[in-house]
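TICKET: design request
STATUS: open
ATTACHED STRUCTURE:
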């Protein structure tokens, strides 16, 4: 097995091991960063929804209070404002969903789906729980959800949701008297739920991983070629020349020129030793020939 082949086999083995370790570490890091990005986005959405709710209660509702006596304005309802605002995201964010899922909603669009109703029931069974999160499958891929309970803590809410008789006539005219009633103070009636697609961040992480691994492979190929060129010029060619010269000298051909001794490495020392051996052997042959 030649020196070049041995060198390339060792180099390839080292690269394969390094590529494997780098790939495992990079993949795990990128996937972990993707999950953290999804969680951060979900928390940002739910905090934004709460900000929209507070803004509606503190800034919008007081301005329209007089009109509410004659006309029910959904825009003054915090849940409606938050849902409408986050529902107006561009199409590329259509999988980023905010919903105030309610077991018995006034607005039919807020009615909890089966899996959302399960979350609400979990909050009802454990009143101390503030957050539920998990991953669920969707037709487009896995999605992370974060939910927090909607609890009736303000008695003013009961003015619209206790009984149909107590509700504003304008609200009954818009939504009817069949749903959204029977709520009680401190009851959990629903959940704020944010769903953020995980596959978006995971695909981005996967593209980054492939780019990184491709760049690493390209870097190896460049290093492989450069190291082979360096190995050929600095090691293999000088050693091959020395081997050829040694073969000629061993057959009595002393017409071989001496090797340059300018190098200060192992090859240079080998050249010095070879030149000294050649001169000694040549002198010995001449002395033998002179005595015959």
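STATUS: resolved
RESOLUTION: sequence designed for all positions
ATTACHED SEQUENCE:
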């Amino acid at each position: 097995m030649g020196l070049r082949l041995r060198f390339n086999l060792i180099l390839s083995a080292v690269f394969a091991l390094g590529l494997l370790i780098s790939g495992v570490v990079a993949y795990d890091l990128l996937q972990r960063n993707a999950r953290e990005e999804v969680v951060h986005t979900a928390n940002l959405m739910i905090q934004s929804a709460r900000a929209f709710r507070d803004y509606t209660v503190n800034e919008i509702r007081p301005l329209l209070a007089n009109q509410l006596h004659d006309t029910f304005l959904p825009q003054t309802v915090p849940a409606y404002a938050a849902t409408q605002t986050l529902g107006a995201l561009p199409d590329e964010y259509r999988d980023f969903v905010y919903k105030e899922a309610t077991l018995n909603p006034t607005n039919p669009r807020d009615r909890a789906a089966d899996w959302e109703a399960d979350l609400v029931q979990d909050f009802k069974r454990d009143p101390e729980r503030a957050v539920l999160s998990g991953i669920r499958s969707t037709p487009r891929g896995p999605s992370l959800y974060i939910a927090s309970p909607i609890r009736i803590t303000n008695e003013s809410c009961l003015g619209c949701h206790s009984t149909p008789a107590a509700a504003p006539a304008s609200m009954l005219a818009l939504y009817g008297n069949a749903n959204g009633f029977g709520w009680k103070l401190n009851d959990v009636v629903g959940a704020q739920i944010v769903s953020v697609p995980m596959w978006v961040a995971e695909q981005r992480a996967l593209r980054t991983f492939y780019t990184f691994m491709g760049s690493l492979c390209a870097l190896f190929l460049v290093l492989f070629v450069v190291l082979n060129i360096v190995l050929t010029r600095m090691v293999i060619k000088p050693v091959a020349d020395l081997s050829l010269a040694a073969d000629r000298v061993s057959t009595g051909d002393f017409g071989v020129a001496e090797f340059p001794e300018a190098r200060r490495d192992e090859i240079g020392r080998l050249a010095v030793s070879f030149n000294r051996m050649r001169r000694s052997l040549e002198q010995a042959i001449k002395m033998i020939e002179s005595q015959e």
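CLOSING REMARK: The chain has two domains: 3-10+209-291, 31-206. DSSP finds seven helices and four strands in the chain.
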